[in-house]
């Protein structure tokens, strides 16, 4: 199981038929929904109202997916985007309107509101069975599936997440793709994902930065570049462009929160990062460019910043002889 049993995405779900069997009526259910005691995760499925209201949109999506799975009238597994929450994988860049279910009988089901049923041949290892009977696509299959419903960038976020976590290797992903996936609908982008996937990349922000550099024909960086002072390890850089004398760091709020030292607050962490940057610059002679989520939202401006920095460093090197 990829999620702990107390994860909010595994909140108990009660179907309408179950609640009616316990003595509820449609009127009493409506009354409890109005009072906020219950919430409808989807039509005919109810959860604790307070917990539901405190969930993020992605967490609510996972609960809706579980409800649709329970309501399915045939043997299915959660697949494509709907498998990702239960694999503890990022959902960045994917729509959260539809639940994706793949049928075991190989048939295509009728389209329902909020549900997309898929048919597909399942291979050994394609299905994960959770402790509560929930079945969902394995990391390697889910990665290939989402490449047919999402953008290359969003799929790369998923692929790099699993590769870095060690769920599978790039060779295993390519091997799983070759036999049949090239005949799947909408799989034209899958080959590009396999070309760009990089196990060394650690986070969605870093994946998006790497994709940005490729998409805008900027120099290809070296991910997770290690800097040493003699034999002493000093730092690991998100991306290095040694030939151009710069390195790139993706700055997300989570980055500082995750790496707080005991007794250290966010301000102290930022100051420590500044001292780290100064030390790297002294050892390498390179300049640093920091990229944030808001930078990625303004690609034209970010491209200019990167190209201007590359040109500035090149000019300084010429002037230095």
CATH architecture of the domain at 211-319: 3-Layer(aba) Sandwich
Determine Rg (CA atoms, Å).
24 Å
Strand content: 15-25%
Uncertain stretches of 5 or more adjacent residues: none
Structural class: alpha+beta
**Which word captures the global form?**
elongated
Provide the CATH top-level class of the domain at 211-319: Alpha Beta
Q: How does this model look, in words?
A:
With about 325 residues, the protein is of the alpha+beta class. Among the domains are: about 150-200, no CATH class; about 210-320, Endonuclease, Chain A. About 40% of the residues lie in helices and about 20% in strands. The chain is built from 13 helices and twelve strands. The chain has helices at about 15-20, 25-35, 50-55, 55-70, 140-145, 150-165, 170-175, 190-195, 205-215, 255-260, 265-285, 295, 300-320, and strands at about 15, 40, 45-50, 75-80, 100-105, 115-120, 125-130, 135, 220-230, 230-240, 245-250, 285-290. The strands form four sheets. A four-stranded mixed sheet has the order 9-10-11-12. β10 and β11 (about 245-250) form a beta hairpin. The longest helix has 21 residues, at about 300-320. The chain is elongated, with a radius of gyration of 24 Å. The relative contact order is 0.07. The mean pLDDT is about 90.
Topology, pairings included?
Elements: E1 14-15, H1 16-21, H2 26-35, E2 38-42, E3 45-48, H3 49-54, H4 57-71, E4 76-78, E5 99-103, E6 115-119, E7 127-129, E8 135-137, H5 139-146, H6 152-165, H7 170-177, H8 190-196, H9 204-215, E9 222-229, E10 232-241, E11 246-250, H10 253-258, H11 266-284, E12 287-291, H12 293-296, H13 299-319
Parallel strand pairs: 5-6, 11-12
Antiparallel strand pairs: 1-3, 2-3, 4-5, 7-8, 9-10, 10-11
Helix pairs in contact: 5-6, 6-8, 6-9
């Amino acid at each position: 199981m990829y999620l702990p049993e107390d994860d909010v995405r595994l909140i108990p779900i009660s179907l309408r038929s179950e609640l009616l069997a316990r003595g509820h009526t449609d009127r009493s259910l409506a009354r409890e929904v109005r009072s906020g005691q219950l919430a409808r995760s989807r039509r005919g499925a109810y959860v604790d109202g307070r917990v539901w209201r405190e969930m993020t949109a992605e967490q609510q999506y996972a609960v809706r997916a579980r409800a649709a799975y329970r309501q399915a009238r045939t043997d299915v597994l959660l697949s494509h985007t709907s498998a990702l929450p239960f694999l503890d994988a990022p959902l960045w860049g994917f729509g959260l309107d539809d639940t994706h279910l793949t049928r075991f009988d190989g048939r295509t089901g009728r389209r329902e509101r909020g549900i997309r049923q898929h048919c597909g041949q399942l291979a050994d290892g394609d299905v994960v069975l959770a402790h509560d009977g929930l079945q969902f696509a394995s990391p390697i299959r889910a990665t290939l599936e989402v490449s047919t419903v999402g953008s290359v960038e969003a799929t790369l976020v998923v692929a790099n997440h699993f590769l870095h976590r060690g769920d599978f290797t790039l060779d295993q992903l390519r091997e799983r793709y070759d036999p049949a996936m090239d005949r799947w609908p909408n799989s034209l982008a899958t080959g590009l994902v396999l070309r760009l996937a990089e196990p060394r990349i650690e986070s969605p922000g870093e994946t998006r930065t790497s994709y940005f550099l490729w998409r805008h024909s900027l120099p290809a960086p070296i991910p997770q570049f290690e800097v040493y002072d003699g034999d002493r390890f000093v730092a690991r850089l998100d991306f290095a462009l040694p030939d151009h004398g710069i390195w790139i760091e993706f700055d997300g709020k989570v980055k500082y929160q995750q790496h707080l030292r005991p007794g250290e607050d966010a301000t102290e962490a930022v100051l420590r990062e500044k001292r780290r940057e100064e030390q790297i610059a002294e050892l390498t002679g390179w300049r640093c460019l920091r990229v944030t989520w808001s930078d990625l939202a303004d690609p034209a401006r970010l491209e200019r910043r990167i190209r201007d920095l590359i040109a500035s460093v090149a000019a300084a090197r010429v002037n230095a002889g």
